Structures are given as structure tokens and as C-alpha cells.
Amino acid sequence: MKLNQQTIEQLAEHLENAELQAFEVVKITEAHPDMDWDDAYAIQAEILRRKLARGNRVVGLKAGLTSRGKMKQMGVDTPVFGWLVDYFSVPDGGEIKTSELIHPKVEPEIVFVTKRALKGPGCHIGAVLAATDFVMPGIEIIDSRYKDFKFDLKSVIADNCSSTRFVLGGQAAPVAGLDLRTLGVVLEKNGEPVAVGAGAAVLGHPAAAIAALANHLGARGEEIPAGTMILSGGVTEAVSVQAGDSVNLRIQSLGSVSTRFI
Ligand SMILES: O=C(O)C/C=C/C(=O)C(=O)O
């Protein structure tokens, strides 16, 4: 690690304030060009520590930048991982206040819920499918705290991968009998399709994103516990939204989920 504990705590406070008070900041790598991957995840962990100390609860995990569409959109080439806390969760059909956000975008996601723990290294698609209780549709709302939504990988990891809200809905279905690679995904904004894709856009198979998360945690001596909800990453590029927009996600065989921005 290149940063000391005091700097990690200061950067975590800075990024969390930007999230909670909805203001943009410059990429933290501008002032700390030498920070490394461990520093980035340590800042992310410190933000979570602050939230847990305030009484928030972790309700899930996420993989991000797992599809070519997203990697191309953001100019990066590696998946990233983060956590989701209770107040990020919005009920299906519920409203999201744009006044609490900076420059939100929506992403269509295939969501996994595990029934058995998954631990890397060596976790693979087969192990993920065997450990999956069900999959369902989810809309993730991301809101990078960085100016103009521009970042590098270390900055975005520290910012908990731009996480801010998510909406789950549709039908929970077991993976047996589903080919997650060919599941069609249609994201609509105000009744018009704005992004269309299929599950294979996520690392060739969305379960590969969950395996990558298990391997990432395994390298740190951690695992994905049984009963964990995980967003596997945007299938398509993210779509900007503003107050007044309604968003609906349809996933083949899994139904639909929606939200409205006010
Ligand atoms: O694009 C970002 O701001 C980083 C987060 C990405 C995702 O959440 C994703 O690709 O699903």
C-alpha cells in the first residue's frame, strides 16, 4: 500500500461526503497518482466502516464494468467490485429523488441470490450456478461522485464503484432451465427502448461476474456468504436519467422492474 491510514480515512470521508451531500469531486488519483489497488479497496472499505458505524447494513454486493459496453463507455478494461447498503434499495415501482444524486445513470442487470457460500480462488461458472438460489431482474442506479462521470479504475473502486441505488423486481427464477447467456434484456426510458442486450454481454456469461467476485474476495481471505444478493453488472452501457423519467427493465423469462425519477 502507498497511502497511510490517515490519508485513507480523509479520502473516505471526502468521497462519502460527496455521496451524501450530492456534489462532484475531482478524481482522487490527481492528488494521489501513486495510490495502488489495495489503497483503492481500503478507501472503499473505510467508507463502508463509516456507514456501518452509523447503523447502515450491507444488503448485497456488486460487480461493475463487467460488460464490453460498459468498459468501452468508461474507457477501462477490468471488472470492479463493491457493496450495497440498506438505503440504496428502492422498491419496485418506487420513486428516486434526483435531488439526492449528482448525475445518475441506470443500468440493466441480472441479479443473483446465492444459497451456498462461494469462495475463490478457482471459482468458476459451474460452481456459481450450483450455488445460485435464483436470478431476477434489477435496475442499478450509478452516480459517480467524480466530475463529468470521468474516472480511472482506482478512483472508481475507492468510490464504491459509483453505487447509489438499486431496484429489484420481476420474477425470481432458478437457473436450471435458463440459458443466462441468451436472456434478452430491454431497458426502456419513458416507454422507449434505450438499450438492448443479452446476458452474454457480461463476461460471456453473467455467472462469470459472480465467480470473479468470489475470486477477488478469496484473494483477501473472504467469501460470498450463502443468501447474498449480487448485481452482476450492467449488461449494456449506462443511460443518463433526470427528474421526470420513468425506467422499465424487461428481461426474457424474468419479467420486469421499474422506477421513476422525481
Ligand atoms: O460506470 C461506473 O460508474 C462504475 C460502475 C459500473 C457498474 O456498476 C456496472 O458496470 O455495472
UniProtKB/TrEMBL annotation:
<dbReference type="InterPro" id="IPR017630">
    <property type="entry name" value="4-oxalocrotonate_decarboxylase"/>
</dbReference>
<dbReference type="InterPro" id="IPR011234">
    <property type="entry name" value="Fumarylacetoacetase-like_C"/>
</dbReference>
<dbReference type="Pfam" id="PF01557">
    <property type="entry name" value="FAA_hydrolase"/>
</dbReference>
<feature type="domain" description="Fumarylacetoacetase-like C-terminal">
    <location>
        <begin position="104"/>
        <end position="261"/>
    </location>
</feature>
<dbReference type="InterPro" id="IPR036663">
    <property type="entry name" value="Fumarylacetoacetase_C_sf"/>
</dbReference>
<dbReference type="GO" id="GO:0008684">
    <property type="term" value="F:2-oxopent-4-enoate hydratase activity"/>
</dbReference>
<protein>
    <submittedName>
        <fullName>2-oxo-3-hexenedioate decarboxylase</fullName>
        <ecNumber>4.1.1.77</ecNumber>
    </submittedName>
</protein>
<dbReference type="InterPro" id="IPR050772">
    <property type="entry name" value="Hydratase-Decarb/MhpD_sf"/>
</dbReference>
<dbReference type="GO" id="GO:0005737">
    <property type="term" value="C:cytoplasm"/>
</dbReference>
<dbReference type="GO" id="GO:0047437">
    <property type="term" value="F:4-oxalocrotonate decarboxylase activity"/>
</dbReference>
<keyword id="KW-0456">Lyase</keyword>
